[in-house]
Amino acid sequence: MPADSPQRATKETVLLAWRTHRLRENPRLLGLVMMAYGVALLLWLFLFPHPLTLILPLGALTSAMAEYLFPVSYRLTTRGARASCFLTHLSLDWSEVKRARYGEDGAFLSPFARASRLDQFRGIRLRFAEGNEEAVLETVRRCRREFHASGEPETA
User: Fold this and answer.
1) Per-residue pLDDT tens for 101-148?
2) Which of 68, 93, 138, 153 has its CA 20 to 30 A from that of 124?
3) Domains defined along the chain, listed by start
4) How many Cβ atoms from other residues are within 10 Å of residue 52's Cβ?
5) Which residues contact 107 (CB under 8 A, 6 or more apart)?
6) How far apart are CA 114 and CA 44, in angstroms?
7) 89 Cβ partners below 8 Å, 6+ apart?
8) Please, are residues 128 and 105 in contact by the beta-carbon 8 Å criterion?
9) Using one digit for the tens of pLDDT, what is the confidence trace for 85-95?
10) In 3D, which of 64, 55, 67, 60 has the Cα closest to residue 22?
11) What are the φ/ψ torsions at residue 141 (nearest 5 degrees)?
């Protein structure tokens, strides 16, 4: 068994890590984002004239746009997949991954065996960084195959 396989490690070992920043990859959308912020804040200020009330829409918009505005760090470990962005930290252990979809922008891991409307809330999208498509796909396939072949990682 390879030294970096999910069954060999008793503690979590990072197999692959990378970072993406969609704002840097596609800066053309920044103008549109700023315009949306401006319109939303002006409408909110018109409805609720107190300046302190702007904190609510500013926080909501920033939270909704966090994946675009801030870098996202991804880690594939011997225990599962992890994604961190701003205040959001997502994780899905290999034992919970029931389905994986692969597309041109990344891989999507889901805890549901069949497609569900809850996928977007419970799954993890692993967006590719420039040039790491093959490494991500190979690591995900290998970890899923090795975990599901044995059912449980060894604890020795």
Assistant:
1) 998 889 999 999 898 888 888 899 999 998 899 999 999 999 998 887
2) 153
3) 73-150 (2.30.29)
4) 7
5) 100, 101, 125, 126, 136, 137, 140
6) 40
7) 82, 83
8) yes
9) 988 999 999 99
10) 67
11) -60, -45
